[in-house]
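Backbone geometry tokens:
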Amino acid sequence: MTTEQPPEPTTPSSGAIVAMVVSIAGAFLALLDTTIVNVSLHDTQASFGGLDRVQWVLTAYLLALAATMPVTAWLADRFGPKRVFLAAVGLFLVGSAACAASPTLISLIAARGVAGAAAGVLTPISTVLLTRGVPREQLAKVQMLNGSVMLIGPLLGPSVGGLLVQAWGWPAVYAINIPICLAILIVTARRVAPDDLAADRPRRRLDVLGLLLGATGTVSAVMAIHGFADGGSWSSRVVWLPAGIAVAGLGLFVLRQLRTPSPLLDLRLFRHGVYATAALNIFFLGFVLYGPMVIIPLYFQAARGETAVVTGLLLSTSGIGVVVAGFLCRKLLRRLGGGRTMLIGISLTLLATLPLIRLTADTSYLLLCASLAVRGVGTGLTVVPAMTRAYESIPARSIADASPQLNLLQRLGGTAAAALVTVVLQRQAVQQHGLVPAAFAHACVWLLATSAVTMLPAVGLLVAERRETRRNVAG
């Protein structure tokens, strides 16, 4: 006589729920920090002078983030997701406190580098901790919740940053991280289950050469993009030199990872059709997500004379659309799949961008808010399905490798998008004799074009999903 085994749990345990909350909070904090600081640069310049030097507050953060992100998978394998998460949050706290207390611009830039290095690990390790202990059938639901929160973070940055700067000055945008990090550290240490690290399990060796090649390639790519955004042409040394180093470094990094028995990142994941096309989508969707974050806030402030706080509140209407997309996304993914859902999202994004190509000095705020809300829905229905399908298509043990890859692709795509839009705006400002509405309208034409290009990788994901379905049926 056989006894029936109890069914496997289909809902996360209480410990897993706590891990989900703190991991989403940690990743949210790192993403919010990328935009909350932007509105403080004017006050920072007033304290230290030199806008060209103050911009390094942003650049140092991004360079350090790009350098440390590839090592996340090895850290998780060597020390466990919980320990790495705690260390990253702790280092982010130290960097933020040092920023708030910085007496000079040099010390502020150095402290931002420390915070950026922590954020480079914090963002992907949060995904690893998030999915630990979550049943496979619940993975899509958890990822959709995580993706929706991550989309709202950058949108809240300008309004939160504006309120903080207005009340307490530029150090407040860094000091606000201190109590949040302390709360995350306390809850994680007390309530999240310890890492299960068997003493006899095989451990991945640190690929030092791969780390150096990967860091050199990604940092050089970011520097080339920033050189282009600062007005350099493709023939200028500030662009072609780091671009050449980036191509060489990343090329050698890929060869190294495919040949070494202990790769820093498992690039063989790209052999899976759904994962590869989803990752390509994530890179290109940086143009959909980050391009408007340059154009729209500047339009409200430079062309319409609004304060940072009012601008942030107007931008928050996009968050309403993201929340709506969160409710729709799960049903659409289940019924239509990732590719079709993304095509719907991109179509909504294109539709909502049309009013922006005719911006004037008196364009209705009601129309703009409605456009931003619909764009929020469209963005949620593009970014979240791409991330969800990427993680669903691979084994759970590979998430530690996939998370830094996907996050890095999204950051590089977003950086490239911001650079392109910045160059277009700068050139239009020269032609139009200032940042007038016509300059922003022209930039939105580029935004519309780049959003349309994202249709191509979305179709690729649809094709890859159909192939996967046919293989599953045949098998």
The first helix runs from residue 14 to 36. Confidence is low (pLDDT under 50) at residues 1-9.
